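Changelog-linked ticket: glycine example.
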Amino acid sequence: MKITKILPVVFSLLLVSPVFAQQKNTFKPQKAVLNTISANIMDADAQYKYLAKQIKPEEFPKTFHPETGKMENSNSGWWCSGFYPGTLLELYGQNHDEALKTEADRIMGVLAKEQFNTHTHDLGFMMYCSFGTANKLQPKPEYKQILLNSAKSLSTRFNPTVGCIKSWDSKKSDFLVIIDNMMNLELLFWATRETGDSSFYKIAVTHANTTIKNHYRPGFSSYHVINYNAETGAVQEKKTAQGFANESAWARGQAWGLYGFTVMYRETKDKKYLDQANNIAKFLLNNPNLPADKIPYWDFNATNIPNALRDASAAAIMASALLELCRYTGKTDAQTYFKTGETIIKTLSLPTYKAKPETNGGFILQHSVGHFPAGTEIDVPLTYADYYFVEAMERYKGFAGK
Ligand code: GLY
């Protein structure tokens, strides 16, 4: 074949490659959405100052019960303790209000002891969303030491025979791993980058590979919990804890997976993870049970759809993940992801979801579902809905160079 015939073929192959796509995709943030985001950030600033008044010095906000008007707070060991300082810092990063940074520093002083907690897999959420964000804004040796200790504590839960980090402690014969655990791996990548010790990186990659193998169904929906045999690594059970049924697609679990594999691709550049994230995105976005406003029902297989409760937290996580994934993927999918992230931001900014000032206990968003089967945190605000909503808005602004 003549060179003049080969060149167009080579050129079109380059166009569809993800690396090239990353440089070529252009996204057009809408001025109206950017204005909504500016207003949301100002409102969230005031709202989080109000939230700060609802907690005692050692407490972390957990949720608010609209029917009783009561706050529910936690101690630093609760898996969500990093989201409150994380949200304060994300807001501070956007509007430089020193009062938010002061409150974040204060509460991180209470949180710091969790760096040595080896009884939870949630250290990524707890420590990376807080100290990791603080360290990105203003790197400090003390933040780095806390993050490194946290990565070491998390690594103690890795079992090489299973190929996973243990999520929940339970009886000795069980080794329970939940899809949410994908979110804790970012801390390990940070630790390898920071120290040059590849053992953290290897744990993250092994955990992700085992998760692809055992958590995902052929259509790229995910089980919530896999129970492994701790001695042989064999799968003993595939089930749910927070979803509607063992074979259902619990919405937040799907969102954790989407976000987690997007981070895996960012950190490794291994196309296998990009494919996984794209396939999860297709499961979500082509799902006939995803409403037009893109806020999922709490479980894609809840029996009372369209009357099932929505989960704003799953929507916020999806928006943030899609607004990163669109940077890595081919043109058509990239625009769909960008527009879906945008739609979610627009929907969550409406009065249905965004609380009026000094209501909702001081949380930004209403209508999330924590643990439906346990009957807890149903149709309430949750700290992680706020955190990923603020992160999604920040990512959207990034496309306008702001
Ligand atoms: N990691 C627990 C949850 O998503 O509710």
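Closing comment: Example verified and attached. The pocket of glycine is lined by residues 79, 180, 242, 252, 370 (CB under 6 Å). The chain has a mean pLDDT of 94.
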